[in-house]
Amino acid sequence: MLTPCHxxxxxxxxxxxxxxxxxxxxxxxxxxxxKDWAVxxxxxxxxxxxxxxxxxxxxxxxxxxxxxxxxxxxxxxxASAKAGQGGVEHELRFTRGDAATRWRMRDHVRxxxxxxxxxxxxLERTDGPAERVAVFLDGFAFHASEKVNRLADDASKRAALxxxxxxxxxxTWDDVMTWAAGVxxxxxxxxxxxxxxxxxxxxxxxxxxxxxxxxxxxxxxDDTLDPVLRNPVETLLEFLxxxxxxxxxxxxxxxxxxxxxxxxxxxxxxxEAGRLLPDVLRGANLPASASANEAVAxxxxxxxxxxxxxxxxxxxxxxSKQPDMRAWSALAVLDDRAEAITGDGHKDRWTDWLRWSxxxxxxxxxxxxELPRSFHQVAVSTSDQVDxxxxxxxxxxLPTEAGAPQPLPQAWTEAxxxxxxQVEDVLLALVKEAxxxxxxxxxxxFEYGDQAIQAELAWPDKKVAVFxxxxxxxxxxxxxxxxxxxxxxxxxxxxLIKKLEGN
Length: 503
Prior knowledge:
The chain is an alpha+beta fold.
């Protein structure tokens, strides 16, 4: 009797029906369906899309290894196949102590973002806050080689996904195969630890660890830099097990700061940096400015010689009154022009471009985190499409287009940058009065009383506060003390302006 397995029939039925599945009957049905098909001999396979075959082989190796990894008692995750509406799906479960996460993995889901794409796999969290991860398995020959150069297209599609809130994880053939080898050779009683190329030199890594620890504060075994230093597949699994974006943003900031060990940061003028950004992305030097004091920047190279540009906002963060080492604007830049991809070292640069982009993307603001920071994965051939206004550090420093209203006073632009996105509409509605000087800039993150009750926006001298959540006891306390209280989602702007003008 022919026995069905998880690579053919079993994923399409529930586990309770497995005893009734017959590979013999399935084969007979297929033979019956195909008996009248017309076939013809071919002399060569040159017309066959080999890239599709390679992609499917890489996808198959990734899934099979993932299932094997999940069956090991030493690991804290599992992967199982099941039937979904569109075919085979996989459920991934992770357990660490009392914490657990669960994800659904589907292949080739069409993503209708501003630049549509179809990642090899889409992971969606099913047991907690909404989170999506698009996984791309990239073979060098069919993405970054002299014959097939899709780097600019890859960068454009993946930028559109990130703009839509989707995390992008890019894995190479070597990443998957090295991880698969690590899974197959792992010793009993030990977790898989596949080989990984160094992200940093020893000196840079030491500085990165120091910066990361300063952001963490008190030492925490669950918040170290180690997960980002591992094989990119293992780093992805680490994120799925612990998808705390704030934690991963600290790791990204630490890694980026590590470049300061070799690439000395220099003071830059934000407006000039924005004006010259297209030239900088094509290879020009960052414009140094001895008189500037709001930002520092560096132009560094990874161990694989990929170009990383980092710009750090040194303006005091409104709540802490201190600069924040997480307020980075980062760009990972790869030269994809013909003369660059034929030269030595291009494959190493491409590999690091993917890996570093996986990690630095956590510098993008997440929900509830309004630090002025951003990330761009850039291909030089289309670098002129990068709008400097989308680089967080440069946004408020750049002049508006001709005919547009005059720029806001600096204090107002900073308030808009630092405040929660939930009050952005309120602030923008006050722009006209702000330009005329009729109302003062609000205090972002105002803390009131001995209990330090926090309002997202407040004008203390006018006793006006705007909150982003509902709390009747808190609102009653403010009202008792003579405050006018408004909720971000239900602000009467006209009435708010009257209160701010003292009417």
